Structure formats: structure tokens, C-alpha cells
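Protocol step 4 of 6: structure prediction from sequence.
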Amino acid sequence: MNTIDRYLSRAEWAIMNICWQKGKASARDIFDESLKEKVRSYHTVKTMLDRLVVKHYLEREKFGPIWLYRPAVPRTKITSREIETFVSTVLDNTFTPLLSFLAGKQELTEKEIEELEKLIREKKKGINHEQS
């Protein structure tokens, strides 16, 4: 797979989210799903899909007269890259403002709180092992 070095626009994120949700789909299926969010022409969606293929975010294969599109990279890889870029660029490599914002913005479930506590414990163990 080629390196993913171009970032996604807001519209491309919307299309990629549909593709990640569906796994493999025709341009028509992706277009129909995209109408739930915003009115776009079929031609616009098809152009965006083809650009995402060129950018190596999607792969496509011919199935009779139609093209089927599927994600070429997992959502977690792209999301991680975007978060790392945001943290380094906007937050000057500090996570506290991001975590404070997220924790204060919405109600956390008990499970989410437990996961955060587990991450903190693991980070503390990692720091203690490095200092030893």
C-alpha cells in the first residue's frame, strides 16, 4: 500500500465514514447514504470517491458495469494521525486540554471512566519502569 500523506477535507471525511461503515459499496450506495447528511450530486460523490482512490484512502474493483469501493486503510489509523497532528500543532504536544475538554463536554459512562483510569495506570507503570 502506498503512503497516505494527504489529509482529508470535511467532505472526504463524510464519504470515508460511509465507506468505513459499509465496508464495500457501489458509488450509488455511497451517494444514497451521503444524502442523509448533505445534498450533493451523484457526479460530485463519484469524483470524491475517485480522488480518494488516487489519495490511497480507498480501493476500487470492477464488478460487471459498476465500481465497488472499500477502505484501503482502517479508520483507527487515520483518526490517530489526525489526533496526533492536532495535538502537536494546536496543543503544542500537551494532552491535558484535550482530555479536559472531552471530559467536560459530555457525560462519561462508567465503562469510559474505567478505561481512562486503566490508561492512566498503564502510563504510570510505564513511567515507573523507565525511571527504574
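Step 5 (inspection) to follow. The chain is about 60% helix and 10% strand.
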